Amino acid sequence: MRGRVLIFLLINLCVVAFLLNSVWTLLSLLYTDGSDDAITKAELPSPNSEKIDSRPLVIPKIIHQTYKNATIPEVWREAQQSCLDLHEDYEYMFWTDEKSREFIEKEYEWFLETFDAYPFNIERADAIRYFVLHHYGGVYIDLDDGCTRKLDPLLAYPAWVRRTTPTGISNDVMGAVPGHPFFHRVLESLEAYNRNWIAPYVTIMSSTGPLFLSLIWRHHNSAYEDMPEDARVRILFPNAYMGHKWSFFSHHVGNSWHRWDTDAIIWVRLGLKS
Question: How far, in Å, CA of 22 to CA of 37, rounded?
Fold first, then answer.
């Protein structure tokens, strides 16, 4: 009898510890802005600077983009073309749903069951970007992000993501060398975070989307007492992301996957502001 009680207590302690750790990680995103790893304005060469050619590039010159099929909606073609026009010396890899599944089946067969079982296609679109960056390296760009200057200066960092608001990081533009430790951790974490939270938006954000990526980023940073430079994830802040002549990207209409619960969240936020 005592043995059963002890086992019961231990199980409950493990559950409580897991919940506390998860909540603490979530709360830590509120006060962690990534400034310690920021790609500062001072270290970014201007678009026409001679320093661009003198910096060693470690990320391969590959641009990855995804869509369900090869017919890209008109609303995103200008953004896509802006990246192609600026990067004629880059390899361009376009991942349709069919190609994405074939790639997972060939290179990461252990994940295929989870990949097929995702209830929302955007979860597969999220996941594939992590796998191709881990496998090939390069830069992933959402179709609703256009390019306003060459990405070469960002290829000097082993891995980078962008800061988003109100907190955490986004997965719409990212770059990495093949096999970077952060993206290795991301791949290893996808199965554990594959949970259904009833509301589609919450499920997507926390299983494969920006919230998931932000949590793994916090775990990655916490795993090192003295992080080596090649394991570091640098952060692209909003002013370098878009809005200035020296920024790298422009944003176009997107987010077609948002559902009813997104509208509800926006409605609540507007109500709180009024």
Answer: 23
Tokens 């970077």 — which residue? Answer: 180
Kindly state the tokens that stand for 238.
């909003």
Peptide bond into 119 cis (omega under 30): no
Confidence of residue 167 (pLDDT cuts 50, 70, 90): confident
Residues 174-184 as b or e (16 or more Cβ within 10 Å = b): bbbbeebbbbe
What average pLDDT does the segment 245-261 reach? Answer: 71
Three-state SS string over 70-113 comes to CCCCHHHHHHHHHHHHHCCCCEEEEECHHHHHHHHHHHCHHHHH
Contact between residue 238 and residue 35 where contact means Cβ atoms under 8 Å apart? no
Distance in angstroms (rounded) separating the CA atoms of residues 64 and 67:
11
Query: Taking Cα atoms as reference points, which of 236, 59, 233 lies closest to residue 138?
Result: 59
146-155 confidence digits (pLDDT tens) = 999 999 999 9
Single pTM value for the model? 0.84
Give the three-state DSSP class for 3: helix
DSSP 8-state class, residue 38: B
- Give the list of residues 6+ apart from residue 154 with CB closer than 8 angstroms, or none: 39, 59, 139, 160, 175, 236, 248
DSSP summary character for residue 69: S
Q: Positive or negative, the Cα torsion across 173, 177, 180, 183?
A: positive
The conformation of residue 142, written as its DSSP 8-state character, comes to: -
Sign (positive or negative) of CA dihedral 139, 209, 82, 250 = negative
pLDDT beyond 90 at 262: no
What's the maximum distance between 2 C-alpha atoms anywhere in the chain?
76
Rounded Cα distance between 21 and 118, Å, is 25
